[in-house]
């Protein structure tokens, strides 16, 4: 898919507001045919422009502790460390960054004790981690996966 036009962006914005909307509802809102909406959504899905996911509230499923952990890594070890971190089910996000930390992860835990065990037992097993800067979320003000601005 080469480029998204204004209709594609409008579809994304409308679905972003409520991903459960039907093709016919989106079509009515955008004043085009249901077939057009269906074709464009399928084309964008196939191109990997977006995906339908369930965004779970971690607190509602027993994950009370969110941690953002920044790592300093030994030179040449970043890729292997990232692969190791990806394997842990607690880890939701792994990214390489410039700046103070070579890698940053976001991870969720049932308790502070589980976080401590993860740091002291699991992370300690990974060769090449020089430092782990553990930050625990105290209060959340925004959690969004919305990137498309919708027109008011």
From TrEMBL:
Signal peptide: none annotated. Residues 4-64 form the HTH asnC-type domain. SUPFAM superfamilies: Dimeric alpha+beta barrel (SSF54909), Winged helix' DNA-binding domain (SSF46785). The keyword Transcription regulation applies. Coiled coil: none annotated. One of its GO terms (biological process) is response to amino acid. This is AsnC family transcriptional regulator. It comes from Sinobaca qinghaiensis.
């Amino acid at each position: 898919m080469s480029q998204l036009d204004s209709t594609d962006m409008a579809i994304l914005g409308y679905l972003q507001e409520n991903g459960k909307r039907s093709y016919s509802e989106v079509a009515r809102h955008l004043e085009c045919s249901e077939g057009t909406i269906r074709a464009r959504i399928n084309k964008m899905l196939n191109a990997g422009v977006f995906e339908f996911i369930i965004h779970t509230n971690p607190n509602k499923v027993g994950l009370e502790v969110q941690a953002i952990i920044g790592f300093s890594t030994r030179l040449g070890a970043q890729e292997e460390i990232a692969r190791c971190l990806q394997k842990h089910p607690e880890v939701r996000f792994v990214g390489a960054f410039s700046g103070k930390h070579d890698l940053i992860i976001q991870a969720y835990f049932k308790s502070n004790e589980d976080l401590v065990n993860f740091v002291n037992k699991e992370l300690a097993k990974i060769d090449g981690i020089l430092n782990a800067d553990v930050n625990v979320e105290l209060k959340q003000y925004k959690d969004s996966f919305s990137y498309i601005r919708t027109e008011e």
